[in-house]
Design goal:
With 424 residues, the protein is an alpha/beta fold. The chain is built from 15 helices and 16 strands. The chain binds ligand KET.
Amino acid sequence: MSAGSGGLSRGGPGGQVGGAAGTAPRTVFGHLEPYAGDPILSLNAAFQADPRPDKVNLSIGIYFDDAGRIPVLDCVRRAEAQMLEESGPKPYLPIEGSAAMRKAVQGLLFGAGHEAVASGRVATLQTVGSSGGLRVGADFIRRWLPGAQVWISDPSWDNHRAMFEGAGLAVHAYPYYDAATGGVRLDAMRDTLAGLPAGSIVLLHACCHNPTGVDLSRAQWEALVPLLRERGLIPYLDLAYQGYGDGIEEDAFALRLLAAAGLTFFVANSFSKSMSVYGERAGALSVVCADRAEAELVLGQLKATVRRNYSSPSIHAAGIVARVLADPVLRASWEADVAAMRSRIQAMRRALHGVLAAKRPGRDFRYFLTQRGMFSYTGLAAAQVDRLREEFGVYLVRSGRICVAGLNSGNVERTAAAIAAVVA
Ligand code: KET
């Protein structure tokens, strides 16, 4: 191919590539678009770089303790001590991950002795965080349900759209958050879902909706099931905050409801937040199928997806999760820690609300009390968010979402005062 036909010819040692005769040589990657960065991760990085000592990080969905640190849970420390003590070899895990972890995850999600698990109709694999699970599921859908549309809530975690579009799927949004009432636009949501083509994928936050903190009630979930079934829709649950809503068991309500209703669905779950092991990338993907034979087919194709991507997951993440969930002493310690994290966030919600209600009595801040999980959707405009960051060193994403777990007894009052100043 000649340069004149638009083909590339190798340049000199500088890696330059000649274009058509007469055009300036360019480098191999000179045409790339700069990465705009991720709205959450870039903001978290900007926070780290901010020299102000009294800065407040409400940007990323990470639980910080009252001293502003990411806790190392005692159960995790002890599980790791056991692993170090055993000092075993580190072979590759199977493609689908550790058998002990997968079994423990099924028990955690579905509860002991659940029919779906006992009958072998749940295909579970350990994944690289729940992000890895979401993406493996998306790639699987693209390959085996290729025409399926994906519907996410409006709004949703930004990365949901990016992941499913990245897998080559068309992503749309169904109505969800009602800014006027601070609740769910249930009728509009149901109307939209009722009009979707059969086989559409409906991404639902199993608990602690990100970014709004507004969840469906149990009655609303129950009312959704017949619609999902009648329309032949395929739920895809994201369970990233198990234990931060009402409790570890309670937060599995939606997934157990769908399983009991006999629906086929996906669930990606995470241990990043619940075990405070973000960087270990501990998560899983489960697909609840019609029967054992189908689950075996699904697991096989999920394995094929993983093998050609990252091959197999982390042995260290599996060791932590399997031990904490299976050892009764570690499990009890974990459950107590999750309860403590949940109630500390609730205490911060009350503290924030108390200061704001006193400082701005004309405004309704009750949403801080009713929203659940790590996040609150403040309704602050992007310009107000910018002022909070620039003038007060308070970092939150521009949608107005705050991570309540970034508040502590040392910063909640001044954060509330800063919010009061920008809403004035
Ligand atoms: N799902 C949801 C809904 C979610 O908020 C996160 C992370 C994940 C999945 C990823 O979890 P993991 O198992 O660690 O892969 N959310 C926070 C951090 C991030 O954006 O990555 C956040 O929203 O701030």
